[in-house]
Amino acid sequence: MKPTNKILAFSGSTRKASFNVKLLNLAVAAAQEHGAQVTHIDLREFPLPIYDGDLEATSGVPENAVQLRELLLTHDGLLIASPEYNGSVSALLKNTLDWCSRPANGVEGLAPFRGKAVGLMAASLSPFGGLRGIIDLRGIMAKMGAVVLAEDVAIASAQNAFDPTDAFVDSNTAKLVDQFTSNLIGLVAKLHPNTDASKVER
Ligand SMILES: Cc1cc2nc3c(=O)[nH]c(=O)nc-3n(C[C@H](O)[C@H](O)[C@H](O)COP(=O)(O)O)c2cc1C
C-alpha cells in the first residue's frame, strides 16, 4: 500500500462535549491552514470489544480494527488528543491501539505504526493538563515503532480553556497549538520525504 503524506487525527474521548475533541478540532484546523491533508475520525464510529485473545483466535481481528489499520497504513502522521484517566491513557485509546497492533490481512501487526510521526495532546480538568497520560502514551507509541514529536500540548483546567464558540480563550494557547501542528507537519515531511511533501508548508 502506497503511503501518502497525510495525517490521521483522532481523540481518546468520544464524549459529546469532550475537551479533547475541542482541542483536536482546533489543532486539525491549524494543521490544515499549514497545508496538511488531515483525515479526522471519531473512534465512536469504530466500536471495538475489549481486546480478548480468545475472541481474536475464534473470530479474527474485528472489522472496525481492520478498517482502522487500513487508515493508519495510508497516513504518515498521527495527531492524537486524549484525556488522562487515573494518571494514564484512556481505556478507549489503549484498547483501540491494542486491536490495531494485531496482524490482519497478511500485514504485520505493528506495520501501521512503524515510522509514523505522532503528535500528542491532552486536555484535562486538572492543573497538570493530562501530562501523565501523554508521558505514558509517548512510551506506548515508541514501543509500537512510531516517532513521537518532542513537543506536546497539555491543556490544564480545560473547563476554562475554550470560549462559547469553542475557540481558545487564551491567544497564547492558540499560538502554542499552531506551532505544535507546524512542528508535526515538519516531522512528517522529514520522515516521509518522498510522499507528497510538496503539499507541506514548513
Ligand atoms: C475515570 C476518570 C479518571 C480521571 N482521571 C483523571 C486524571 O488522572 N487526571 C486528570 O487530569 N483528569 C482526570 N479525569 C478528569 C478528566 O480530565 C475529565 O473528565 C476530562 O473532561 C476528560 O476529557 P474529555 O473532556 O475529552 O472527555 C478523570 C476522569 C475520569 C472519568
UniProtKB/TrEMBL annotation:
Transmembrane segments: none annotated. InterPro entries: Flavoprotein-like_sf, FMN_Rdtase-like_dom, NAD(P)H-dep_reductase. GO terms for molecular function: FMN binding; oxidoreductase activity, acting on NAD(P)H, quinone or similar compound as acceptor. The keyword Flavoprotein applies. Residues 6-158 form the NADPH-dependent FMN reductase-like domain. Pfam families: FMN_red. Keywords: Flavoprotein, FMN. The keyword Flavoprotein applies. One of its GO terms (cellular component) is cytosol. Its cofactor is FMN. This is NAD(P)H-dependent oxidoreductase. It comes from Pseudomonas reactans. The lineage of its organism: Bacteria, Pseudomonadati, Pseudomonadota, Gammaproteobacteria, Pseudomonadales.
